[in-house]
Design a protein that fits this description.
Keywords: Signal, Transport
Membrane topology: Lipid-anchor
Strand content: 5-15%
InterPro entries: ABC_transptr_periplasmic_BD, Bact_iron-sidero_bind, FatB
Protein name: Iron complex transport system substrate-binding protein
Mean pLDDT: 87
Organism: Oceanobacillus polygoni
Radius of gyration: 29 Å
Largest sheet: 5 strands, mixed
Number of strands: 12
Number of helices: 13
Length: 339
């Protein structure tokens, strides 16, 4: 009797286990359905619409295969840990981690770019802007399956509002990058820091001192005109600086206008703001801008030199025109002008 009861209990146990397995499989199937359903919902959220210089573009969220060509974006992407498949290393500052990374293919420079490199890496997204903006259509044709976005900021004098464009352009492009790479909090913090740096630099300027901005390259000092160019020009609008000198048909070229140092000195500026172009692109044997300024006899009797009222843009500004660079520049302006 005991043996019979044992067999019966054993059979019941087997059926119970079998029933549990079937139930587990059924639940697993339901979970798969739910999971699949969630995955499908998630898939619908893996793209977003952003607005670039040409209109509305659908882009992937957190793309893994990224090509970046815009000097204003490199530092932001690097700080956020975004890996690149290709970049124009020839126009990037040597300290950028992308330059040393051999896995990042080199597109060259904007004058003779090897655009075929972009096609070879088959990117999900290509970030265009600044020096490469003129290649936008070519790149779209080259990689028709990629999202190509143009974050170019128009700070030309023809835009009428170069200062406003610079500020809004930085904010918009930073927020856009935050949306694409799921770095919204980081993007918002950058914009907040940018706004604060602008406010402090505005407050530090007394509204009357005259400002002379120059670009130093190859040992020469060139005039950087108000409202023109990518760095100093728009800042006259943002901070309402009083220019020491204005000329008609000023150049927006990165090397500045060819005006004699004597003519610059005759304006006797209260402040001289300097962009050292060679510091960003040349070897260490280039003469530093500070040495060029200090060794210019014509400038020594100006108020700016005699009072030590000079501000030098961050050394990598010419090749690293990021929002971080401008935050640092504005902070330097605020600290120096307030002294």
């Amino acid at each position: 009797m005991r043996k019979s009861n044992f067999k019966l209990a054993f059979i019941i146990a087997i059926f119970a286990i079998f029933a549990l397995v079937l139930a587990a499989c059924s639940d697993s199937g339901n979970e798969t359905e739910d999971t699949d359903g969630q995955a499908n919902d998630s898939a619908e959220d893996t793209t977003i619409e952003i607005t670039d210089a040409h209109g509305t573009v659908t882009v992937p969220v957190n793309p893994k295969n990224v090509v970046a060509l815009d000097n204003r974006t490199f530092e932001t992407l690097s700080d956020w840990g975004i890996e690149l498949s290709a970049a124009p290393k020839d126009v990037m500052h040597a300290d950028s981690p992308y330059v040393a990374d051999e896995s990042v293919q080199n597109i060259g420079n904007h004058r003779e770019p090897n655009l075929e490199v972009i096609a070879s890496v088959d990117p999900e997204i290509v970030i265009v802007g600044q020096r490469f903006a003129s290649y936008y259509e070519d790149i779209k044709e080259l990689v028709p399956n990629a999202a190509v976005i143009d974050l170019n900021i128009d700070v030309s004098e023809e835009a009428n509002t170069p200062g406003e464009n610079l500020v809004n352009g930085f904010k918009d492009s930073t927020i856009t990058l935050g949306q694409i790479f799921d770095k919204n909090e980081e993007a918002e913090q950058l914009v907040a820091d940018f706004d604060q740096a602008i406010e402090e630099a505005q407050s530090a300027y007394n509204g009357t001192d005259t400002v002379m901005s120059v670009i130093v390259s190859g040992g020469d000092i060139a005039f950087s005109a108000p409202h023109s160019g990518r760095v100093w020009g728009p800042l006259y609008d943002i901070f309402e600086w009083t220019p020491a000198l204005e000329i008609d048909q000023a150049s927006s070229d990165h090397q500045g206008d060819d005006i004699s140092v004597e003519a610059i000195a005759q304006t006797n500026p209260d402040w001289i703001f300097v962009l050292d172009r060679d510091a960003a692109v040349s070897s260490t044997d280039a003469v530093p801008a500070q040495d060029v300024i200090d060794n210019s006899p014509a400038l020594q009797n100006t108020t700016a030199i005699s009072e030590g009222q000079l501000v030098y843009a961050p050394a990598d500004t010419y090749t690293n025109e990021s929002i971080q660079t401008f935050i640092k520049l504005f902070e330097d302006l605020a600290n120096t002008l307030a002294e």
